[in-house]
Amino acid sequence: MDPVRIRELLLEIQSRLDELFDLLGAEAVDWLNWEGKMSTFGGPKDSGVSLDEGLALCEPHEVDEFDDDLFLEDPPEGAGLARSLNPDYPYIACRWDYDITSRDWLQAHKVVVRNPATGVTVPGVQPIDWGPNESTGRIADLSPDLAAMLGLKTDGICEVAVPIPARVA
Description:
4 helices; 25% strand
């Protein structure tokens, strides 16, 4: 698909999301938001993960519970789930707080990622792993394609919005 058309569609989606959030009102949806540096991870070319490395939010027996395009049809031989990720699919790893968003919750809900410098926003991003390591100073690891859609390179700034279960008073 033409990159210009993709950007137009993303802007239209963002506009519709804004309308939806306005309709729902602040009390109807709780969101956890944070901003900080990012990097990329996953896929067959990611030398930052071991060949057989797994994922915090997906075990091999759970692969079928995710969208068909999240994992490569033909991953490298001996590849774990991290190297089997499709780098052209929008996924994310963050240091999730499982007390707020449980593993099951994260598997079933997608997040929104935004480049605050350009306003480009990508909804429908699949949480798939825990990371990056706190020592990196980064808040998120994005799929290579997601980073490209947002126009971000390693250590670029992104915003992450995570829907969270309604809080009990």
